[in-house]
Queue: 2 jobs
Job 1
Amino acid sequence: MIDMKEKQQQEIDLDKVYDYAEFTDKVSGRCNNCNSAYFKSSVKGGVFLRECRECGTKKSI
């Protein structure tokens, strides 16, 4: 049987860059996938990108 946490992790594609406006944080400042608050950030082409250092989930802010 798959519990909710495993189901949510399966739905998140780590290769995709999510738009923050469409996929907001469930808990502010925390990753939706692993609940980590440790991110690396970069700006490229005027787009701010936030990537979780634990699981690699990416969001453009």
Job 2
Amino acid sequence: MKRLWHTLLIGAIGGIVIGYLMALGFSTFFNTTYLFPSNPTFVSHWSSPLAATQLSTLL
């Protein structure tokens, strides 16, 4: 059971890190001055970039 929780924790942390690295990549690709959690079309569906970042982190 301990090994399962350890694996889940490592997987969750790894997923969040990968997501934020992708966000940095999107921000660099679209030459923005702030962090995009995803491509601009996704971000435009939300009230703010913060809301889009929160959803991206949850996903």
